[in-house]
Amino acid sequence: MSDWQKWIIATLLVVSIACTTFVAGFGTGRYVWPAYQHPVATVPEEQQEQFGVFWEAWHLIEEQFYTEKPVDYQAMTYGAIRGMVASLGDHNTVFLTPSQVDMFDEDLEGEFGGVGVTVSMTDEGLLCVVRLIPGAPAEQAGLEAGDTILEIDGRSLKDMDMAEAISQIRGPKGTDVRLLLQRMEGNVLEVVIRRALIEIPTTESRMLDSGIGYLSLWECNARATREVREGLGQLMKENPRALILDLRGNPGGYLHVANQIASEFIADGLILIERSKDGAEIRHEARSGGCAIEIPLVVLVDGGTASAAEIIAGAIQDNNRGILVGEQTFGKGSVQITERLSDRSGVRVSTTRWYTPDSRQIEGQGLTPDIEVEISDEDLQAQRDPQLERAVSYLLAQSSP
Predict the structure, then answer these.
(1) Which of 105, 141, 223, 300 shows its CA 20 to 30 Å from the CA of 198?
(2) Which domains does the chain possess?
């Protein structure tokens, strides 16, 4: 391996460290920047010395490691970066391959090749199916909310981080993926699903029989603000007696989108407080012109409500604009940026923390609903929604004479 190649690898490693200090956060979820060009002359001498041990290990592998095939130096470099990032102890700060950065970018644009599920990571390092996109291949193949994915194409998920697992499930339209699943009752089954072009249904709106408007927001992506305004506009034309905003299973997205959506329900006041590690503070105020700022409101939340969705729910709760019904939220209160490196890989870095208008910390804690209602396995199997039912009964009681 030439000195020039080693210099490139060392530069790439230093770049991933430097990203944490040079870039301000824009979104609670993901925001992709152009590749960052790191000037070699600025590498501190102390950091160069720290790389001495790294190069000792690298040279030992080069000289002594027995292999019958060429060493994959890119895999070694990516592995070193992953280890460095993992040592920070922040599960939101991760290294991403070029294809994984593209995947997250596509996700926020709202369209990608895949099977049509929303998933979360369990404490055991497996994926749990949170929600199925209606009519998508996963639903047609018989997947159910609550299914745990054990393997993808024969590979155990215990060997993957969440980004890699999701990238393995996704793929070109018309290709197959084999999933080994465990049902909530313990049964294990294998399904083969043919991938399709998935368009995330960002919102769903309808009038309930009780005369209450219902709006579900799946993700705070690039289309969310426009679709929320359109959905609220249609609902308000029908003169509803109250509104239910469903944020269950919403994994978050862009910070500015969360601010815009919260402003549709809050006339004025704080939406969130953003604080950096040096104590600097940005106070995000509600924007004027919201179309649902006075109507009685309930927000549905659960353990899948995270990040930008928690910003919206926390702002509504702290401004006494409405109440939260459901279960404790996920507890992601940090802002990330995704910085592309010179080979189009990236490092997703936590840059700031955000707090609710009452200065409550969300990171690792989440939001506690005003009315706590759980959904049992029996409710899921019977297709009952006690959280929605409780929200309706609360709003009807509030509006009765």
Answers:
(1) 300
(2) 3-101 (no CATH), 112-199 (2.30.42.10), 203-337+351-399 (3.90.226.10)
